[in-house]
Design brief:
By secondary structure, this protein is α/β, with parallel strands linked by helices. It has 23 helices and eleven strands. The longest helix has 21 residues. It starts with 22 loop residues before the first helix and ends with a helix.
Length: 610
């Protein structure tokens, strides 16, 4: 498969890779990303921007996010088809081929799809850089496209959910979940007792959510079909999973020191409601995941349940509720947010209005942050805690060396059926700017505007380009500050609000736009001034500098953030006709689209710069 790309091929962690030092390594990284179709620069419509990735992963400008485990990256970096790597490819290949044989009846079509997948599989092995999970996603796309089956395992998933649900209706289950602990919990206070009981319930549910035998039993019976389950509750029966209640209860209540870490995540302040992003396990397990979610909601938290956008073997999708009455009933009362490009404002509104929000992660594959939707990335950013069920989520979140922006809790059973419970704290460098903090900042600004107006001052808001020109953000702030200082010198009895003076570490474009929208909609702005070409030219003159060519002809209409603000200004003016809007013609703004994720510049212009 060729020589390694660098003498540093034995890199122990992807975090050790720094771009901009070894041109051959940099070239290989770009080759790796493009071959796996993960490079934002070459495919911005499907792949997350670096800013969106930073919603979830703590990355420096010269860091590289591989979207796979370190051991996988090390194998690919060496470009050696080792036995371990070959085993990984083979595992996926067998799953795909087995599904093709089971689902395609027509022998000609089955042979054609198999041959096509084999060509793609061999090409991936020869390339030496394809992540196995990316390969299987491509093979599944081939299978679905040529077979016409959008979810070939739909019936199997329904049966798994029905088995899991039926088990939860048995006296056996109720005995396990409701049984008092062997040793009475020491009651230091009623509050402590509630906390201990809440944790005990979660502990038992989490253990049950990993017992595959409950929903994978091959011999079972339902008195009614899944479609008729609402008339007569199905009866759960398995000859393969028949532990007695005491044996199972002993397993549920076994000593589990790692689980105590969850206490610190959930009960930092007893009365604080957390926003939790929950990544579900496979079908069957998801019924217990929903019970865990319901328990978290009962404890006062708000939960965002993330499902897949489309078929990925037995992993549940956001569309399964349309075909599976058991799954649909389990999620009664949940709000399904189907917009994969939701704004921060809309997401926070839906979280406030609904204790359980169901979203898609935007993918048809194992968790891949390059391919997750904008809604998923924003949900991650707004959450205080990520809870993930399943070994595949463990590999991507815990076994990876990357540090993430949120605390992560992961649980699954390993190949030896041992419980693995892991907590990964968020990066120490990351500062979580909560919605409450943004609202407090907005309220302080609104209060200062109210006081200024009461003192007879004119309140002026100045909207200007901040980062609409790549590589010019620092210059834009200098230009902005110079012109605002000029206005303050010239204008008496005025309060001039300069957005550039209110940035704090940890805040990004999403946070700022959310905060400023609250301020701008308050009705206390007398004059809303938008940056003009003349303003920019005057700013460079004040700085004693010639204006760089890249700034020629630029004004607020060049900024998507300013375009959003112009829409707000026009809406506010309808309620407050006395508001004066000064600057470029509003019509010139509306050729822009939504501001970029975590950016200050225009999404639609971004492509033309590459």
């Amino acid at each position: 498969m060729g020589p390694s790309v660098s003498s540093r091929a034995d890199i122990g962690s992807s975090r050790e890779i720094r771009l901009g030092h070894d041109p051959h390594l940099d070239a290989w990284i770009l080759h790796f990303l493009t071959e796996n179709n993960l490079d934002h620069a070459t495919n911005p419509l499907e792949n997350a921007s670096p800013e969106q990735i930073r919603f979830m992963v703590d990355l420096d400008e010269d860091h590289f996010f591989p979207a796979c485990t370190d051991w996988m990256l090390n194998f690919l970096l060496k470009q050696e088809l080792t036995k371990d790597l070959q085993r990984e490819y083979s595992t996926y290949w067998k799953k795909v081929i087995q599904m093709i044989r089971e689902q395609i009846v027509d022998p000609y079509l089955r042979a054609k799809i198999t041959a096509l997948c084999r060509y793609k599989f061999k090409a991936a092995l020869r390339s030496g850089v394809i992540i196995p999970s990316r390969l299987v996603k491509w093979l599944l796309t081939i299978f679905m496209g040529h077979s016409g089956l959008d979810d070939p395992l739909r019936d199997r998933k329904r049966r798994a959910n029905a088995r899991a649900y039926a088990f939860t209706q048995t006296p056996f289950y109720r005995q396990i979940i409701s049984a008092c602990p062997k040793e009475l919990i020491a009651c230091a206070s009623m509050e402590q007792l509630r906390e201990d009981l809440d944790l005990l319930e979660l502990k038992r549910l989490i253990r049950l959510a990993t017992l595959h035998g409950i929903w994978e039993a091959k011999e079972f019976r339902l008195h009614k079909t899944v479609a008729e389950w609402t008339d007569v509750l199905p009866v759960w029966e398995s000859k393969e999973f028949q532990p007695d209640a005491q044996t199972l209860l002993d397993d549920m209540d076994a000593s589990w020191p790692e689980f105590e870490k969850l206490r610190g995540c959930l009960f930092q302040k007893r009365h604080d409601s957390l926003k939790i992003l929950y990544l579900s396990g496979e079908s069957g397990a998801v019924i217990f995941d929903i019970l865990i979610v319901r328990a978290l909601i009962r404890q006062g938290h708000r939960v965002i349940l993330a499902l897949k956008e489309g078929f990925d073997f037995m992993t549940p999708t956001i569309w399964d509720a349309d075909h599976d009455p058991v799954f649909a009933e389990a999620l009664v009362g949940a709000y399904f947010l189907l917009d994969n490009q939701v704004s921060k404002n809309e997401l926070l509104k839906r979280i406030r209005e609904n204790q359980l929000l169901v979203i898609s992660d935007g993918t048809r594959e194992r968790l891949n942050l390059y391919r997750t939707s904008l809604t998923f990335a924003r949900a991650w950013k707004e959450a205080q805690l990520i809870i993930a069920n399943g070994g595949s989520n463990y590999r991507r979140l815990i076994a990876a060396s990357q540090e993430f922006t949120r605390d992560i809790v992961s649980f699954h059973r390993n190949d030896r059926q041992e419980m693995v419970f892991s907590c990964k704290p968020r990066s120490a460098r990351v500062r979580h700017v909560a919605e409450r903090e943004l609202l407090v900042k907005a309220d302080k600004l609104i209060d200062s505007m109210r006081q200024a107006r009461a003192a007879g001052k004119t309140v002026i808001f100045y909207s200007a380009i901040i980062g609409s020109i790549p590589g010019q953000t620092k210059t834009a702030i200098v230009v902005l500050n110079a012109f605002v200082a000029h206005l303050r010198f010239r204008l008496e009895q005025s309060l001039i609000i300069n957005p550039g003076e209110h940035f704090e570490p940890g805040m990004d474009g999403d946070d700022l736009m959310y905060m400023w929208e609250k301020v701008q909609s308050s009705g206390f702005i007398d004059v809303w001034r938008f940056q003009t070409v003349e303003d920019i030219e005057r700013s460079f003159e004040l700085l004693g500098q010639k204006m760089p060519a890249v700034w020629n002809g630029k004004d607020a209409t060049y900024s998507t953030g300013c375009t959003k603000e112009m829409k707000i200004a026009l809406d506010v003016q309808k309620k407050h006709p006395e508001l004066q809007i000064i600057g470029p013609d509003p019509e010139k703004f509306f050729r822009r689209r939504e501001y970029g994720v975590g950016k200050y510049f225009d999404v639609s212009l971004e492509k033309s710069w590459r």
